[in-house]
Request: fold
Amino acid sequence: MELVLPIAMAMTDTDSPDAVEAQLVAASRRGDEAAFASLVRRHQSRVFRLAGRFFRRLEDVEDVAQETFLTAWRRLSTYEARAPFEHWITRVCLRLCYARLASERRREERLESSEPVASPHDPVVAIDVERLLATLAPADRFVLLLLDGEGWSVKEIAERIGWTATNVKVRAFRARRRLRRVLEEGS
Amino acid sequence: MTEDDVRRLLREHHARFEPDAHFADRIVARLPRNEAWSFGWAARRVLPVSLALALVLTIAVVVTGRSASGTAESASVSAFSTNVSDPLEWLLESRQELR
Reply:
């Protein structure tokens, strides 16, 4: 009798990371939940780190991260494997982050509330940055965090979020001009 | 704060949250299942209970059926004996009359 192992157990150490990832994606498409759990474990840190750029509260980051992987599960059939899975899941996460930022109407209220702001550095400076970012439109803030925060190029941002390079450049220019003005007014 | 300071701070602007050990399990628990899977799951959950219930009902039907048929049998026997005795009595009576 042939023994059929779940894909996550059947893989060997000699398989290359790309091959393993391709096997996990293929198995997940067939509905293998264990394979999908392995995919989640591979990419969860990156998704958390990315969401952590835009949201300060653990609940928000967790929500976005969960939604990212649930969307990935539902839409796995649209992944064509032309680019690494990591790029695709990054794009899904970015779109959800942007949608959440755009729908967030109470940014300033949150900043004025007494909720602690998670930061590894000086909390006073961190809140100053938060206040600066809160003066920007969600799309401008989004682009600025990807440019200066993640260190991505205009081309990379355009590719990953599906905007035109011109749109990204305009947003970045507007965001920097706005920040400059706020800083000048502050000084 | 200068523009360069802002850029530096944006690079550091990072909540640094890490997923806990059960994050993947929570995702798997929330995965939407298709209808076939749901029916299978429901069948696995409901099947033992429904089998037990069917067994209890069968036993109950058999037991009550037996006692009901026993009562009906005795009732029909007594009725038959009454009916049977009547013609005999009538026969005896008619013979006596002939004599």
Remarks:
- Residues 112-120 of chain A have pLDDT under 50 and may be disordered.
- Chain A touches chain B through 45 residues (CB under 8 Å).
- The radius of gyration of chain A is 20 Å.
